[in-house]
Amino acid sequence: MSSTSSRLRTHETNGITKVEFVDRNILDEANIQQIGEEIGRLIDGQVNPKLLISFSNVDHLSSAALGTLITIRNRINSKDGQLRLSDINPQIYSVFKITKLNRLFQIFDTAQQAMASFT
What we know:
Elements: E1 8-13, E2 16-21, E3 25-26, H1 29-44, E4 50-54, E5 60-61, H2 63-78, E6 82-86, H3 90-98, H4 101-104, E7 107-108, H5 111-117
Parallel strand pairs: 2-4, 3-5, 4-6, 6-7
Antiparallel strand pairs: 1-2
Helix pairs in contact: 1-2
């Protein structure tokens, strides 16, 4: 897979990998699967992964994408890693609240706050 077809932009700072989405709408099942695989490779390549997923560019998120986030969380936890989410717009955050996923994930208003929370 070439990097031009990636659904993600990644940036590493101080051992923390920040992931941003290329797409504003994360609804398509094939794209969600690709995102899950790309993030899975990032996790697998680290001993204690520290991952920040920023939703700053995202307007819409499907329930399948939420399922992928849970899978990512479980993979990170199994490697004693840390996961943070940030920059979730209010419409998407309301879905996290309704599904109680806001209790499952550490969610921050900004990527800067999330970065500062890693130990």
